[in-house]
Specification:
CATH class: Alpha Beta
Structural class: alpha+beta
CATH topology: Aspartate Aminotransferase, domain 1
Largest sheet: 5 strands, antiparallel
Number of domains: 1
Strand order of the largest sheet: 1-2-3-4-5
Length: about 120
C-alpha cells in the first residue's frame, strides 16, 4: 500500500492478496447485512464502518491473518464466550482469523449488533 494509505474501501481491498480480499469481502457483506445503515470509510488506513457517525467496526488484512476490530473492549467482554476459539490477544479489541478459517457470519453479526447497541446507548445520553 502506498504511504498515504487508501482513500476508499475498494482501493484498500484492491491492494491486499486475493485470499484476504475474498475474506474481507465476505466480512463486508455480512457487516452490511447486519447494519445496512452504515457508511464505509477509511480510518487508521483501514476499512471502517460508521454507524450514527461513530466507528462501528473495522477490518484489515495483515501478513498472516485478517482482523475484525469492534473498537470496544466492552463488546469483547460481552462476547467473551463466543470469541474463545479466536485469537483476541493484543492491545484492545481485535479478533484475528485466517483466510482459510473466516469468522462465521453469525458471530460477525453478534459483534456488529452488540456494537450498535453500545453506540445507540451512548447517543441517548
Amino acid at each position: 500500500m502506498d504511504v498515504a494509505g487508501p482513500e476508499s474501501f475498494d482501493e484498500y481491498l484492491s491492494q491486499v492478496p486475493d485470499e484476504a480480499r475474498a475474506a474481507l469481502g465476505g466480512l463486508r457483506k455480512t457487516i452490511k447485512s447486519a447494519a445496512p445503515d452504515t457508511t464505509e470509510t477509511i480510518s487508521y488506513q483501514m476499512p471502517t464502518f460508521k454507524y450514527q457517525g461513530r466507528a462501528l467496526v473495522g477490518i484489515a488484512a495483515f501478513k498472516d491473518h485478517c482482523s475484525l476490530f469492534p473498537y470496544s473492549k466492552k463488546v469483547m467482554e460481552v462476547l467473551e464466550e463466543d470469541l474463545r476459539a479466536y485469537d483476541t490477544s493484543g492491545n484492545g479489541a481485535t479478533i484475528r482469523f485466517t483466510t482459510d478459517k473466516p469468522l462465521p457470519a453469525g458471530l460477525v453479526k453478534k459483534v456488529v449488533k452488540a456494537r450498535m447497541k453500545e453506540i445507540e446507548a451512548r447517543s441517548r445520553k
